[in-house]
Amino acid sequence: MSWQEEVFGPMAERTLENAQLYHLAHAYDLGRDSRLAKAIVERVNLELDREENRRGVLRIRPGELYLRTRRGPLILPLRLPEDVRRVVAGERWESVRRDILERCEARFRTAYPEASDKMVRAFLQSLWNWHRASQGQIQPSPWHASRARRPWGTTAGLGEPIAELDAARRVSRLDHAEPRPAHRPETFERLSQFLREEAGVPPAVHEAMLLDLMALRARFAPRASMLRTGQMPLCAMHVDSARSLWQETRYQPLAPTVVSVFAGSERHQLRTRPLFAYEDYLAFHGTRLARMMMEAYRQDGLLSFAELQWITLLSTGTVSRAVDYYQRMHNVILPCPGSVLDMGRMLTHKDIIVRLHLQGLSVLEIARQTFHNPRSVDAYLKVFDSVLILHIYGLPPELMAGILGHGISLINEYLGLIAESLKDVEQMRDYLRRRGVAIPLALTSGSSG
């Protein structure tokens, strides 16, 4: 399997149709690869599309950005299935992004045929905000360094995390009430007849099955009238996917989510005031990405860095550095598959958990702040305790890694925290005593710490 298939392949399978198939497999005992289930989903969506096209109902599909303008709704398809397939097949992300921007430019020019080239450039700048180095900048930003060498902010622990910032922009219907999919009686009757005569579905479940599929469609592809400008619906990984991660993505549960790609004056700022200082650039986009990750999490969804890359059209490196910047500045861990489900190489969340504990926070407080199970937090702290004990006894990092069964990078990260926060052996012993570990004084009197 290529790295493109591993990173972007799951996105191609997170679709409305697969969410409907998953529901039929689990609620109606149809096979997950059942041809009958696929035929039912295809027929239901086709009939509803035909009806809504006749009635002028406008739905925003997953991966489409909805913007309200004085000329009416402007819908920008940032992530089409064929775009994802091109990247999975090995095509460069930059060329696919160029085609996406050209597609968005064409839609903008259709809505604003009188727009000047300057207006078009400003519009595209709001969709893809690349970093422009200021004149005279010679020293590269320390945020371009490897993760282990990136600085911690002086406001770490003092800043206000995004927590509830702009959360009100989320669509309230997802929490309070089931969507009410509108359909004409004749459409419902045609679909019921299809289930009865062609699909062979028992009459007792016709109504329940159709209403379930319609409700899923309304959640994953909401009407434009239910969204605010700058929002995008997505088919996201569900927080309950942990039990089925070994299966292919199309067999895993999906969460209907709506995220705010733009909030407040962000789009105006991107159009009119480009960011020059790299740290300001990371701070701006870090706040945007944090908001989207939090919004998705509150709707039971998890957004990967690949998903965020496609939403913002930024590079994977920029997304990673912006998220890392926000976490380090606010001493929080943002919910994503790497932190919530422990997928991928996410060392930073272990680093932050230990830092918060060294600052005096309890296991429960850390669990709430980092979206972790308290058992996971305690497990990370126990590994740190083990590294600290072996460090007191003077073992080299390579030997620690072999004894504890963890990578050398994690060991070195914890050793850096020890050097930063626990200056001498007495402080180390005091910390371990508070953790319930007693180190005989005779065994540590000769240690250099």
Topology:
Layout: H1 3-13, H2 16-27, H3 35-55, E1 64-69, E2 72-77, H4 81-88, H5 93-111, H6 117-127, H7 173-176, H8 185-199, H9 206-220, E3 231-238, E4 254-260, H10 266-272, H11 278-298, E5 301-302, H12 305-312, H13 316-330, H14 337-340, H15 348-358, H16 363-370, H17 374-392, H18 397-404, H19 408-421, H20 425-434, H21 441-444
Antiparallel strand pairs: 1-2, 3-4, 3-5
Helix pairs in contact: 1-4, 2-3, 2-9, 3-8, 3-9, 5-6, 6-10, 11-13, 15-17, 15-19, 16-17, 17-19, 18-19
Structure explained in plain terms:
The structure is a single chain. The chain has 449 residues and is mainly α. It folds into two domains: 3-134 and 142-339, no CATH class; 348-444, no CATH class. The protein contains 21 helices and five strands. It has helices at 3-13, 16-27, 35-55, 81-88, 93-111, 117-127, 173-176, 185-199, 206-220, 266-272, 278-298, 305-312, 316-330, 337-340, 348-358, 363-370, 374-392, 397-404, 408-421, 425-434, 441-444; strands at 64-69, 72-77, 231-238, 254-260, 301-302. Strands 4-3-5 form a three-stranded antiparallel β-sheet, sandwiched between helices. A two-stranded antiparallel sheet has the order 1-2. α1 packs antiparallel against α4 (81-88), α3 packs across α9 and α15 packs parallel to α19. The chain starts with a helix and ends in a 5-residue tail after the last helix.
